[in-house]
Design goal:
Largest sheet: 8 strands, parallel
Strand content: 5-15%
Helix content: 40-55%
CATH class: Alpha Beta
CATH architecture: Alpha-Beta Barrel
Radius of gyration: 18 Å
CATH topology: TIM Barrel
Shape: globular
CATH superfamily: Aldolase class I
Order of helices and strands: EEEHHEHEHEHHEHEHHEHEHH
Structural class: alpha/beta
Number of helices: 12
Length: 330
C-alpha cells in the first residue's frame, strides 16, 4: 500500500472533499496525557490502597473535563509483573470511567495475548483504542518484550487482524527511536533513519491511526530531535507526517522540554506527557515530560490545545503531593 493513499481525521488532519484534500489546521496541538498508564505500571502492590481504581477513574474523568482528548490509562500486560493492571482492576477502572465521547482512551497491548484480554474485557465497547508498541533497537525490544523486532511485528499482524474483526481502532508507539543505552553500557545504540522509516511504514500500513516516537531514555540532544522529525517530514510528506507524535523522557528536564519545543518546530502536533512528570519505564528514563509544561509551551507558541492550563497545574500539584512526594512507588 502506498503511504500516499492514507487519509485520516483525528480532529485536525486531512479531510477529503470532492476528491481533493482540504487544508491541515496546523495551529492545534494534541497533548496526550499518559500519567495513569505510565505511573500506574510502576506502583508497588502495597501502595494500591493509595492508587485506587476509583482514584484512577476519577483522575481520567478530571483530565477529560479539563479538555484532554487523548489519554493512556491501562495496559493489558501480566499482572504478575504489573499488579495495578490485573484484569479485574482493568475492568473496574474502565467501567468507572465509562464511555467518553470525543476522548480517545488508549490501552496498551503488547502482543496477541494482550489483545485477547482487551477484547475479553470488552474495552472496545467503551470506546478504548488499542496501543501497539515495539522498540526501534533490537537490544531494547528483547529487554522490554522478550522478543525480536521481527517476532513482535508478526505478533502485531495477528493482533491487528483481531482488532479489525471487532472494529477496534489502534495507534502505535516506537520506543528508543532516538537511541538506546543498555544498562552498564557507555555507547548509545541507534536504529538508523531507514530502519525507523520502515517501522513507521509498517505500522501505518497495518492500520495504525497514529505513530508516536519515544525518546525512551532522554538521549537526544537539542538539534537531533528537530533533524530527525524534519527528515521524516521530507520522506513521508506533510499529511502523513501529521500522524506522528513525540513521547519524550527526561534525564534532564530542561533538555526534555527543549526537545519537545523542537518537535513542535519540526511540525509534530501530538505530544505525550504526564502530570508532574510522573512515571517512566524500568528500561528507560526515570520520568516523563510534565503535561502541564507541555500545555504551557504549546500555548506560548500560539497553538490551541483546548485545555485549561491553570486547572491542569492544580491537578498536577495534587497528584505530586498524593503520589510522588509520598513515594507510592517504593
Amino acid at each position: 500500500m502506498s503511504l500516499g493513499a492514507f487519509l485520516f481525521d483525528n480532529g485536525y488532519v486531512i479531510k477529503k472533499a470532492k476528491g481533493r484534500p482540504m487544508a491541515v489546521d496546523k495551529r492545534k496541538v494534541t497533548i496526550s496525557d499518559v500519567t495513569l498508564r505510565e505511573y500506574g505500571q510502576n506502583v508497588a502492590k502495597r501502595n494500591l490502597n493509595v492508587f485506587t481504581d476509583a482514584y484512577r477513574a476519577q483522575t481520567a474523568r478530571n483530565l477529560i473535563d479539563l479538555g484532554f482528548r487523548r489519554l493512556e490509562v491501562l495496559s493489558c500486560v501480566s499482572s504478575k509483573v504489573v499488579p495495578s493492571m490485573h484484569g479485574d482492576r482493568l475492568r473496574g477502572v474502565a467501567y468507572m470511567i465509562g464511555r467518553q465521547p470525543g476522548a480517545e482512551i488508549v490501552t496498551l497491548v503488547p502482543n496477541t495475548r494482550g489483545m485477547q484480554l482487551f477484547l475479553s474485557l470488552k474495552l472496545h465497547e467503551l470506546g478504548h483504542h488499542a496501543g501497539f508498541f515495539l522498540s526501534a533497537v533490537q537490544e531494547h525490544n528483547l529487554a522490554n518484550l522478550g522478543m525480536t523486532i521481527k517476532q513482535t511485528k508478526q505478533e502485531y499482524i495477528k493482533a491487528a487482524d483481531m482488532a479489525k474483526k471487532h472494529d477496534v481502532r489502534f495507534c502505535a508507539y516506537i520506543s528508543a527511536a532516538f537511541g538506546y543505552k543498555p544498562a552498564g553500557g557507555q555507547k548509545i545504540i541507534e536504529a538508523g533513519f531507514e530502519s525507523l522509516m520502515e517501522l513507521i511504514t509498517y505500522f501505518l500500513e497495518l492500520g495504525a491511526k497514529t505513530v508516536t516516537l519515544s525518546d525512551l531514555q532522554g538521549v537526544a540532544m537539542p538539534g537531533k530531535t528537530f533533524d530527525l522529525f524534519t527528515g521524516l517530514a521530507r520522506e513521508l510528506g506533510n499529511h502523513i507526517f501529521m500522524r506522528l507524535g513525540y513521547h519524550g523522557h527526561h534525564a534532564d528536564p530542561e533538555t526534555g522540554l527543549a526537545n519537545a519545543e523542537e518537535a513542535l518546530d519540526a511540525g509534530i502536533r501530538i505530544l505525550d506527557g504526564s502530570l508532574a512528570g510522573a512515571g517512566g519505564c524500568v528500561t528507560g528514563a526515570p520520568g516523563n515530560l510534565p503535561t502541564e509544561d507541555l500545555v504551557e509551551i504549546a500555548e506560548k507558541h500560539g497553538f490551541e490545545t483546548g485545555i485549561d492550563i491553570e486547572k491542569v497545574k492544580v491537578l498536577a500539584q495534587r497528584f505530586y503531593s498524593r503520589h510522588i512526594n509520598k513515594s507510592a512507588l517504593g
